[in-house]
Amino acid sequence: MKNVSLNDLEMMCPAILNRVLLPACSHTSPSNLNDSSLLPDHKVWGYGFLAVTVINLAALLGLFLVPFTKKPYFPKVLTYFIGLAIGTLFSNAVLQLIPEALGLDPKDDNYVLNVVGIFGGFYILFFTERVLKMVLKADTEVRACTCAHYSVEQIKLFAGLIQWFTSTAAGTQSFPSPNACVLLTCRWLKGDGMSNIKTVAWMITVSDAVHNFIDGLAIGASFTLSLLTGFSTSIAIFCEEFPHELGDFVMLLNSGMSVGQAACFNLLSAMCCYLGLALGILLGSSFAPNAIFAIAGGMFLYISLADMFPEMNRIMATHAKGYRGRVVFFLIQNAGLLTGFSVILLITLFAGDISLG
């Protein structure tokens, strides 16, 4: 073994110190291999279009679920989905959208536990108020009718639509020709006459179109940030769209629209989500979409607390009969709220450890 001279040691020391004190090359550092969370442009558009398409299917669910609104178990199912929507919208706003707008990172800034405290404060008050109302029997027994009142013509048209869908799926009836489609569309849009439709129907359609546009804006901006952020925002919006679109569909029918008119205008308003998606992707790709996240976060909080939370309580007050019934609805509300919050919380906590491709 060759002895190391004093001159050799003087030459080796700077290299050793440089290796010990300075970090390794960024091109080979393992910590930088996982930083490429941004999706390529074609995947952003692809995933965004897929998410919006799945969400827009909720706009057509009202057409197939109207017969089930008369079932005794339907209010319980709807209560769970409303609770799920509240949990996902609230937690998505406070765990992801608002922190993103403020430039916070869940791994570096350690804000998740504090945000869990925000949800905890909200949930403690909800739980305490509901228990006190049940114990003190302070619930107002609201028995307002929430069922849709349909005319004979609407029931016949709806029955014909179901029969056509069934026969088409069974292969016993072919799809109508283009001319028949045009005639059927004209008949749907004509209905009992546009002049007989109440003004509230057009207000619902326009406000729903704006709402869907903002949803698409949030989805597009989220996918430009990361795949998991896009999926978590899409999950929150999908959970909200199911009860929201079903309620809009029933309200449009009660406002004088036929089944075909309600389905058509509901679908047209849902198409605005694609416009918002395109604008969200374009804006999110050109600059930091903090403003979009801030606006979407505020809207999610408003929808969950000001719109859907009172609706969930109204359904309970209307359909819960007796102490046992109120307890059952209360447990269903808790299940929906906690499920929605847990899903978004897990996505936030383990976003850096999950790889979706």
Automatic annotation (TrEMBL):
Q: Looking at the UniProt record for this protein, which Gene Ontology cellular component terms does it annotate, in alphabetical order?
A: plasma membrane
UniProt main location, coarse: membrane
**Gene Ontology terms describing biological process:** intracellular monoatomic cation homeostasis; zinc ion import across plasma membrane
How does the protein associate with the membrane?
Multi-pass membrane protein
> In Gene Ontology terms, what is one molecular function of this protein?
monoatomic cation:bicarbonate symporter activity
Which residue spans traverse the membrane? 44-66, 78-99, 111-128, 259-281, 287-306, 327-351
Query: What InterPro entries does UniProt report for this protein, alphabetically?
Result: ZIP, ZIP_Transporter
What would be one Pfam family of this protein? Zip
- Keywords for this protein: Membrane, Transmembrane, Transmembrane helix
**Compartments where located:** Membrane
Q: Which family does it belong to?
A: Belongs to the ZIP transporter (TC 2.A.5) family.
PANTHER family hit by this protein:
METAL CATION SYMPORTER ZIP8 (PTHR12191:SF2), SOLUTE CARRIER FAMILY 39 (PTHR12191)
Protein name per UniProt: Solute carrier family 39 member 8
UniProt lists the gene as LOC107585247
